[in-house]
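Q: Predict the assembly, please.
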Amino acid sequence: MELTVLVFLPAAAAVAIGLLPSSRERWARYVALGASLATLALSLWLFARFDRNAEGFQFVVDERWIDVGAFDLRYALGVDGLSLALVVLTTVLTTAAVLVSFSIDHRERLYYACLMVLATSVLGVFTALDALLFFLFWELELAPMYLLIAIWGSGRREYSATKFVLYTIAGSAFMLLGILVLAFGAETFDIRALTALTEEPDTIVPLRWVFLFLLIGFAVKLPVVPLHTWLPDAHSDAPTAVSVMLAGVLLKMGGYGIIRFCMGMLPEQAHDYAVWLAALAVVSILYGAFVTLRQTDMKRLIAYSSVSHMGVVLLGVSALGTTGLLGASYQMLAHGLITGMLFVMVGLMYDRTHTREIARLGGLARQMPLIATGLVFAGMASLGLPALAGFIAEVTVFLGTFQRYEAAVLAAIFGVVLSAGYILWLLQRVVFGPVRHEWDALTDQRHWWEHAVTAGLAAAIILLGVYPSLLMDLMEPALAAIVERLPA
Amino acid sequence: MGVFLAAEPSVPATPEWLLWAVLVVPVVSFAAIALGVRKAPRLAGHLTQGAVLASFALSVVALLDVVAADGGVAIFRHEWFTAGPLSVELGVRLDGLSAVMLVVVTSVSFLVQVYSQGYMAGDPGYGRYYAYMSLFTAAMLGLVLADNLFMLFIFWELVGLASYLLIGFWFHRPSAAAAAKKAFITTRIGDLGLLAAMLLIWTRGGTFAIDEIHELALTGALSGTTITLFGLGIFAGAAGKSAQFPLHVWLPDAMEGPTPVSALIHAATMVAAGVYLVARFFPVFEVSTDARDVVAWLGAVTAIMAATIALVQTDLKRVLAYSTISQLGYMMLALGVLGYVAAVFHLFTHAFFKALLFLGSGSVNHATNTFDMRKMGGLRKAMPVTFWTFLVGSLALAGVFPFAGFWSKDEILRDAWHENRTLWAIGLGAAFLTAFYMFRAIFLTFFGEYRGGEPPAHGHDDDAHGHLIDPAHPHESPLVMTAPLVVLAVMSVVAGVFNMSGVTDGFGRIVSGALPEAEHHAASFEWGIALSSLGVAAAGILVAWAVYHRRVIASSTLRSAFLPIALVLEQKYFMDHLYEGLLVRRLFYGGVCRGFELFDRYVVDGAVNGTGSAVRWAGDRLRMIQTGEAQAYGAAIVGGVVVIVVSVLLANPS
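A: Predicted assembly structure:
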């Protein structure tokens, strides 16, 4: 029941917003804010009540939904430690996304309705316990995303929106194929059952293909090089809040899918292909970093850095151990907060300067000291500074993976230097350097919502950096259960 | 050599809370300033000074406890987090090495922060400055107290952050912003080694704890290769932080930061952290001859290379910067020839006299508005306190009896002599150069005629720190600046007494207690070594006097006589050109990264867009067959059914 409310509260808010009279555009933001705060509070309440010692899913809802012959499709929601952590990340970032949207001033009702539907779809993905329901939530995200980028975006927004949708659909076609083949073979769509199969299901195509289909679908989302080129376009042309949601939570759907489906349902195949995953991970980390270093647009730079950082997720997964998987999951949470904050800070700058061209900026620490401080902080977190969230995640991944793939990890830690390179280069060009008087008239961060978002995200990043047990202990049983089923 | 047989040392009586308090107090002051006190700059300054003074007092208590326990070790550790089999602890370790470092860090930090009140007066970023200073002190103390490699690494990176922020403190100067970035990235390249060492020791040894790593090295539980690789990784990290060849290039540029920062971070404490790190894992280097040789030789190369560059610098601060690199090389050299006590002792004495010299150069800058020695001269009379203290610092650095540097440098040369004569000769050569370049600086700065300083910039200038200075008429700095100079000068004279070879050895005993095999050999005094090092120091001073004071031979004549050498030195062996111009800009950025970018745009994304175009093209063609004629559709359906039936039959012949 709690989860049904959690997932559909934003959707209900979207309906409510739709019912607002057109003379009350401004109310939309407060409805959205109220709904996102309510889901945030609800998710924290679940977080507090979650039994960290129990195995399996909690707060489960399981209702008959569609009965098709032998297949009992169910409306089933539930969370384990991994999905609960991602749910909290989603509610936090949704609230942040609503707050940074307060600067949007046209077609607000449609805008906030889209944002709310997006929240429902992501929360649904993380809580669905039925594979088909999972897929529906997964696809539901596309419609609001298309509108959000195409209507409120900038640059080549229609091209980017279309590319995003087509690319994702192509990926999810593979995913759907994988899900269907697996579910028909195992004669169930229940994720709990699929992740607890005692013997390999008899499927019409070999399971290693199923693994590959699922992997392609999720790898597009994560993204994994070479399936990543939709991301820089979508990111850079999307409005700030959508970049926050995209980098912060949508990419994590890919990582979640790989862990839940590829690892959880196909342990033998995961084991067989792990070394390829490690190779792809290293390619993503280094390739992403090399290309990031060449970017001249702030948002594209952050977008490409995400490719590199999500490679760390894949690396941790490929280690097939609890430490690696915990590190990978922690990296998803850390990256969500950190990259979310990076996009917020860049968005605040863009709101004022109306440019994302690094070459046109400089010395903004003088005109916008608070925004500059926020960008420096988020940048430091992004390059893996200790006492901040990203460090714990990356080091845990490296420590969990080193035993299995020494060379891959050594190559990956080289990415750590490269990340310092592009982040510090960005800071040097944008925040530091000679003051440009053309920006003298601009104001610093000053609205309450701007303060709330930056302070809140910064606090969360510090919290995850100094108190890792808060989430490690939460997620460990869920991931250990997956590892238990992997061949040694 | 007399062998000192210690009674079994006992555990220092220091309570755990005291050690955590040493670390937490500056953290609190940092947080308070960051969260609001920065708007009251003077309060921020006092808060930082008060915090460091409190940490200093606690550190002294801890040191006395260690002395009372005759060099024993106290460890307190707590679980921080676990992730599967991974378990990470937070812990503090008090022993002779950490206690000495605590006192050095907090005392120099306190003096520098007092001094900064004068030097930074009127700077618009005064509050921010003290916030960073608090952050630095906290991070440095955490680094020293850490009882395991994981925690050490955390604070190791945080001092790097503080250093970055402080080098780039005057961030609107492009040179400062660039120097800050360069420092961070260069040290991070070394940190890769440290990170790799951490991964290696956890994977193969299953621990991060310092005492357990000592044990692993000494008992031979790990293979020799593993220990050597671990040692090399540790040294790579140390080489970045301590600016050892070939990662030394960031330190001279770091002089873009405010001078008190250079004194504290880039001379006395943070850059010595690399030496501390190698000393911390000394048993590893005892066991691994290969790792030790790398340390010794790179240290020696660094010592002599940096000393030669210092000869031709015209910027007073850069002379000191290269001197620091050279002295750090000396300490590494000492560690590489098993001179653990000598290295730590030199770290200890060097902290005082190098901080003194930097603060002295800042005092000169305060009066002349420049660091260019060509614009100084004759300041001896205008700035007597600065002059005399600077002279004391230079004598200590040059290794003149009985100043502090004499004793520590003598021990290093003695240890080198017994291990490897070539290394000893290099050390002696560096000692000569050190005496020469320091007295060159003294004669150029304080003797002769005053050459006018740098006129203050006109008009509205964002950078100028606000104090009113009149470079045309240099005057002594205020008391808040000269008092720390005097205290440091006193330390530069007397710090040697703690470990005078053949006379006292308390320092060595206490510091050796940090090692698991704590038998300490009290050093004996060797006249030959001492006299040779005194001889070269005297020679260096004499040559400097002849060239830069008596002008027996004009320095420009000297330069043209050795022109090729002078050019190489002035260009710092072309290493910046090699790294920044060739390796980073051309090969890496313009080559590798550009290649990947083009590949990404035209091949990977090209394939994506190409697929899109191909589908559209195919759609256009396929549209042709959608004729709308029922007969054609019917024919197609029949054909399709036939194909399916035939293929099913062929697939299932039964």
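Chain B has two domains: 16-455+475-553, 591-651. The CA atoms of residues 337 and 416 of chain B lie 6 Å apart.
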